[in-house]
Design a protein that fits this description.
2 copies of one chain form a homodimer. Chain A is of the alpha+beta class. The first copy, chain A, is built from 9 helices and 16 strands. β3 of chain A pairs antiparallel with β4 of chain B, so a sheet runs across the interface.
Chain lengths: 342, 342
């Protein structure tokens, strides 16, 4: 592709130049005082907020792994691409400053601008909702037939105040925002009948296709000093709670009956609903802990808060995570966020 | 691959977890006071330098487009991946603070850690040379047989002082660091006989396989206020000078006889050598302008400085770039850094 018969180094193609120009034009509509210099030089220049630290996260969105063109509209792929990074910032209570998009399109998609426009629609619409400018990135022709994206989000938080996953303490109570299992339930429905979701857009409640990163809730947790630790639910409750337990060196207990199950998951029946809520992943809600004396409101940043368990001392033979079922029986809960090679 | 028969959302595989752990272990060896929190939470935390601005650049390194496993050793691929980003920082005179690596490996390469170790050797060796910690990133299984990398570099420069490509003025003189055409010449030799380069490493002069980003020269240009504009030579002199001319709204003139031709390019004979120097690309030297009254030293940051032309007023029918050949004849020079779809 690149190293052609004349073995020249990789050059930008005209198709790429057109798509760079398209991104530049679309991105220039977004403006922010944090961006001193956007797309067009070797680097973008950001102005940090005095007394703040910077938070940086990068997330792949690769066709065939994170989205499928026959399942996800271009707008959904764009929305999901930036939602992942924004959710990482939300988990630490940070305010987003700027996004950077690296995007590689197959030759066919670079020529046909319809997919690119839809992708940018989805990505920039969510960026605009949260006042995040697209300040730069990279473009390339994809070496395969797959669309490859990598998003970088840079955020800001007062020095020493960013929420972490490593600071939960025994005795803390465990909370989550919103509801759980919706993304897994919608994904199952999407797989069964992609056509049903053709006209889905971000105005509806689509926990898989258009997840809503909880930036306002995360910012409120930080500002009001309510959370002792926080993480976003990207891998699933069982796995993300394991991250908190490992990094904080604690154990935890979940009350199954307390879990706020998303209506789409409830349609699956109680067993599947519970499985989706515990292991589904990609709900992009926040999972956080708070001191037992902390007064938590019912909602934060417009989203409901639910107490779902508590943090315990890590002590053999206590499991890292214990699930208490409807009948009050306790059992060890293993993280199911990882797949083995088959 | 991801959306399997059970249509579960993408989860980290055990292969991925091993390779994340491997990156984390290798990266933790690098330490920097700028990184408050590295790999292991939702975001990395960076401490900005008071009075400084942040510079951000992202660059893809995609197998089949930016490197080939049958031509480039894993160490060369890793070196080149981070060299591209470091060179972008050098072009703006910035000091690198941290790097972030997004890396997707095909299943076979994730299992066999030899390639990954070689890649990290190459990447971290150049990072360590310039005291840049690897502070985070993302990992995924590649949806194809290709290795996919995206590197983010974050740098720092005193507020308002970063070198730009848009600030050249008519009357300025045009300079470059080091020598030109070496990367294109070595790439041609590599394509002809990849085996000859099997044992190449970063200790030798390998302008294509192990390019050296000119961070010390860029920092000196900024610190000593020598440059009126700057860019790195990634696309090739004709194309990168066009970027300066367009963004600065000026024209330029190059003296062919003054161009510092790399010894590897000289072996190609005068015509091909000139072509490699003008259009080759990937030399990762700096191209900069300075006021005619500026006193430029012979070398900056350990690398030679050569005057190669001058900046003119943009005025029809003057071409954007004029080449003055050995006989003193003037001709218009078109940018050759872009390829058309064939």
């Amino acid at each position: 592709m690149t190293y052609d018969a004349h073995s020249r180094p990789p050059k930008k193609t005209i198709g790429e130049l057109l798509f760079i120009e398209r991104i530049r034009t679309r991105a220039s509509a977004s403006f922010s005082s944090a961006v001193r210099l956007g797309i067009g030089d070797d680097c973008a220049i950001l102005k940090p907020i005095p007394g703040h630290e910077l938070l940086v996260t990068t997330d792949f969105s690769l066709e065939g792994r994170h989205f499928r063109r026959d399942w996800h509209s271009a707008a959904s792929a764009g929305h999901r691409t930036i939602a992942r990074g924004l959710s990482d910032l939300a988990a630490m209570g940070a305010k987003p400053l700027a996004a950077f998009l690296s995007l590689a399109l197959p030759r066919s998609a670079a020529r046909n601008t319809r997919w690119l426009d839809g992708f940018l629609d989805g990505l920039l619409s969510l960026a605009n909702t949260h006042s995040v400018p697209l300040a730069g990135g990279d473009t390339s022709e994809s070496p395969s037939d797959q669309i490859l994206a990598d998003i970088v989000l840079i955020g800001s938080a007062p020095a020493g105040r960013a929420l972490r996953r490593s600071t939960a303490r025994a005795g803390d109570l465990l909370y989550c925002t919103g509801s759980l299992g919706g993304a897994a339930a919608e994904l199952a429905a999407l797989a069964a009948s992609p056509r049903r979701f053709r006209s889905a857009d971000s105005s509806g409640d689509h926990p898989h296709l258009f997840p809503q990163p909880r930036l306002a809730a995360g910012a409120a947790l930080l500002r009001r000093r309510l959370a002792s630790s926080c993480i976003d639910l990207s891998d699933g409750l069982s796995t993300d709670l394991t991250h908190i337990c490992k990094e904080s060196k604690v154990a935890a207990e979940i009350d199954a009956v307390a879990l706020p199950i998303h209506p789409l998951a409830q349609l699956l029946g109680p067993d599947h609903a519970l499985h989706a809520a515990l292991h589904g992943g990609e709900d992009y809600e926040l999972l956080f802990t708070a001191r037992p004396t902390a007064k938590l409101p019912r909602a934060l940043g417009g989203v409901r808060i639910t107490k779902i368990g508590r943090i315990l001392t890590a002590r053999k033979p206590r499991p890292q995570i214990t699930l208490i079922d409807r009948q009050g029986h306790r059992s060890a809960l293993a993280p199911h966020g990882w797949e083995y090679f088959t």
